[in-house]
Amino acid sequence: MEFSIKSVRPEKQQGACVVIGIFESRKLTAAAESIDKASNGHLSALLQRGDMEGKAGTTLLLHHVPSIRSDRVLLVGLGKEKEFTDKAYTAAIRNAVKKIEETGAAEATFYLTEIPVRKRSLPWRIRQAAVVSREALYRFDRFKSKKNDTQGPLAALNFSIDNTKAHGVAEEALAQGLAIADGVELARTLGNLPGNVCTPNYLAETAIGIADDHGLECRILERADMEKLGMQSLLSVAKGSHQPPKFIVLNYQGGKPTEKPVVLIGKGITFDSGGISLKPGEGMDEMKFDMCGAASVLGALKAVAQMQLPLNLTVLVPASENMPGGNASKPGDIVTSMSGQTIEILNTDAEGRLILCDALTYAERFKPEAVIDIATLTGACVIALGNVATGLFANHDKLADALLEAGEASQDRAWQMPLWDDYQDLLKSNFADMANIGGRPAGSVSAACFLSRFAGKFKWAHLDIAGTAWKSGGEKGATGRPVPLLVHYLLKRTGKLH
Q: Residue 254 to residues 86, 171, 259: CA-CA distances in angstroms?
């Protein structure tokens, strides 16, 4: 799929399709007015006859509009002008892309990107249009013997701007949007792969491939390396599986050698049976998505490397399966983490925190500017926030604020949850320094409190994506979140977000 920036009036644009917007009450956007005038009121006549009212979610495809050079004109309903927010804008883009794909048009030029959106800049509109378009076009049919043959031959999308002087900044925003989309697609595809394909070793091979593509430093720690480091908490999770664990270390050096890196840590449980504390069978297939934290940090790194952002970034992925077996960890077992703190494993299904805590300790060696871990950690977070917002916990207010702002800018929102010392008592153990669960009340908070005990030496944030990393039901599949949030955060740090 090719994407480009155009600055041609809609009535003069040649090609398969132009896409213009109509507000509710049949109000024409500027591009629609230009086509209406050139066609001697053709659009106005259609609207007056009631063929379209401009309601959000509606479209009307026109062929051979008089005096218009494009073969087709797609009218997209935008809803009420006063309610045309960023959410309505991206919904219109998504709706238009899906409709164009059905038409068989090989290319299309979007004039929706010229429409002002309250509190959003032109670069934002271009960047989001690219991300949303690619999201709408994404397909995962790798394991289907018959591929999706209903998909049209759409090969190119053009985004129009009405200010030729802004061409440079629009091109930069488009490149950013496509890089984010590439990262999202990588994360979605990794998440959608079944557990018998996407193993810890597969994640390691993927990381090596990213490193080779972009000239990055990559190191894969094996079981023996982890044993030497004292990562007994992580290794306790891998004991029941025949798949060997991997600890992935990727370094991107885009900043000065003396610049402290941002460290992203992604939970890489490639399948979570619950271990001895076995999960119910219904819906267990979705536990292949338990590595979506790992997928998201690899996706974010890919986007950063593609944009060549001027910062240093380290990605850590502790990867393992969590399976039952004769050698698996048992409830009541006590392990010693890499930090030296001891943990009583009261529930083997609370394994994500057991691999993340050793990764947090490992991150200390990089003397990081900030550390962010991303994990499908708790069902409690799904109960609290559903599938709309990611749960955010942090020990540093400015870091939390920056991530919340990035979530708003990227439409990949998070919501900050409490991390008060009052909750730490939930993790008391009679036999070890701490238990790995704190009971049913405040489950997502006690999990974050557990991780906080290993993050005291740096600015740290934890993103619980259990509700946002994938969808169930008829739209079952990985979402690629929170790649957009992470990349927007990193773009803002480098001053590249406009």
A: 32, 21, 10
